[in-house]
Amino acid sequence: VNWRLPSGCATGSDPVAGRYAQGGAAFNSNKGQWMSAIESTLQEHRVFPPPAHVVAGAAISGMDAYLELVAEAERDYEGFWSRLAREQLTWQTPFTKGLDESNAPFYKWFEDGKLNATYNCLDRHIEAGLGERTAIIFEADDGAVTRVSYGELLDRVSRLANGLRSLGVKAGDRVVIYMPMSVEGVVAMQACARIGATHSVVFGGFSSKSLHERVVDAGAMVVITADEQIRGGKTLPLKSIVDEALALEGSDVVKHVIVYRRTGGKVSWNESRDIDLKTLVEGQSNVCEPEWVSAEHPLFILYTSGSTGKPKGVQHSTGGYLLWAALTMRWSFDIKASDVFWCTADIGWVTGHSYVAYGPTAVGATQIVFEGVPTYPNAGRFWDMIQKHKVTVFYTAPTAIRSLIKASDADAKVHPRSFDLSSLRILGTVGEPINPEAWMWYHAEVGGGRCPVIDTFWQTETGGHVITPLPGATPLVPGSCTLPLPGIIAAVVDETGGDLVNGQGGILVIKRPWPSMIRNIWNDPERFKKSYFPEELGGRLYLAGDGAVRDVDRGYFTIMGRIDDVLNVAGHRMGTMEIESALVSNPLVAEAAVVGRPDDTTGEAICAFVVLKRGRPTGEEATKIANELRAWVAKEIGPIAKPKDIRFGENLPKTRSGKIMRRLLRSLAKGETITQDVSTLENPAILEQLGEAK
Ligand code: WT7
User: Fold this and answer.
1) Where is each AMP-binding enzyme C-terminal domain found (predicted)?
2) Gyration radius (Cα) of the chain, Å
3) Residues enclosing ligand 1, CB less than 6 A?
4) What digits encode the pLDDT tens for the residues 76-100?
5) Could you give the CA distance from residue 543 to residue 529 in angstroms, rounded to a whole number?
6) Is the complex ipTM higher than 0.90?
């Protein structure tokens, strides 16, 4: 077993347990890190019914409509999803079978059906007469605005798709995209999809080493990048990082690098490999016959962190994935032709795939694509843009909300109150648990009390929302992602896969395969089975990797955070092992252990316990080395993986069998007094050393 129960869930007796347990193993606080979160949500009695103006005309209007869909899925699971796949998507060849479970857990959906993702995102809207509709309102870092219609978007996608074909890229080939937030980034993704090439977007904040690792694992034939990116008034390199990455061993799989000139900054050029995007698309036709692929054809691979040091290439399908992107735009965001949708996520993360590149276009919506950061030129940027573009549906991360609360407390000019946000109808959050205080602020100050806050729980692996309120149906409880979408059979189970009653915390699973689920881990089917369908749980339950609890009154879900060695820092997912390997690859470091600790703004913060080969540094030397190590991790993985705290010790606390006592380290990271039995420690004095952060 390579996961642990959320620390609030061990068996035992506790006064709090008595209140929520319904027989069976008692729910025990165990002074666990999630206890306060669970308690505050379970004791959360504020309920916000869906506002009448949203209920009227919502895609799913009222709880009865939701329950009717739940019942339909229960009656005929395969038929339910097949009906929706026919309604939401346009198929070149209709599928004859919904779900194929013959090779479980490698499930297949709609496999003999053929379609093209970009036909669904672009051509069909244009054929319906919507070619003039704005697809993307792009706002650059400096505030410059460009509008791109559906007609123009198809034009650009087709030219680049033809350009890729001219370089020999064909269906099934992999293309890595390492680009800034831009129209070109979305075009690059869809151009791949146009010709059936599988894209793998790598977030522009990852280092050359991380990029290299992904390029090699994916076996990418082409990399699409930009000269530089601009964020918060600063220029950051991209092309030179690609050059560094491709200088490393094994990179000769890459035949071409396509460069979008964003800034015109000077970059080095390899004549036999590098091509200017503009030159590539110039001579190309704006007509590109789509490649009709099986619904199971891999649309993309997206690398994410797991329990080991090596990132996992999460492989998604075309049909099931696109169904989800379209369906959840309608169900969770109630998207309409008149909406202006804005998801602030970067295309480097799954949120930017499902709710920037594919979801909004699949339903023909108008959306904002934003190049910059929420704090530039000041922390009112989001509110200013909502006001300027009359955004109606806004989707962002709890971390952003928490940092903007702080900023607007300090400066009234950047407070949402100083802007006209009356265009807003629906608010969404994603990426990490939202604390009830931040939820209330978002609801009241940003949404003016009129907009439902849609707390969408999902993961890279789920392809799109799985547990989420519906704006026109679900009564909201701050801090809870409420109920599964119709057809999602989510449950909380114990360590053997047995159902737990409401009120008991446990392991979050999904009991039946759903269309947009992960299909495989690229190059590693064994890891796919072990990570997501572990034998310990019977081999058929999808293991999300999070702890959860359902409340007794409504069965609402509250997510308690990861139960594996994965951290969630500012909504970014990171493996403790990845950071540990980066640290120990530094010549100064003998040993390192990384844990998360709660943080007011970023949710979790990275805390590294480090043993140096030369002995424990103190004072200024310790500060200096800590900063060196942070810079090292930034270079190895990317700045997002830099440890906030670094603590030096002569050694690490271990059990007699030599296992690092991570639970103890988590307590130390939080600054708790150690109440655990430490009699087995070789050197209890190190606890004092490790309590001091650098
Ligand atoms: C992990 C997945 C989903 C797209 C962005 C992150 C956490 C995500 C919520 C939420 C509580 C959440 C979970 C999950 N998470 N959304 N609404 N409430 N936790 O995707 O990088 O694959 O991370 O993010 O821990 O497992 P990801």
Assistant:
1) 578-659
2) 25
3) 304, 349-351, 430-433, 455-460, 481, 544-546, 559, 561-562, 568, 573
4) 999 999 999 999 999 999 999 999 9
5) 10
6) yes
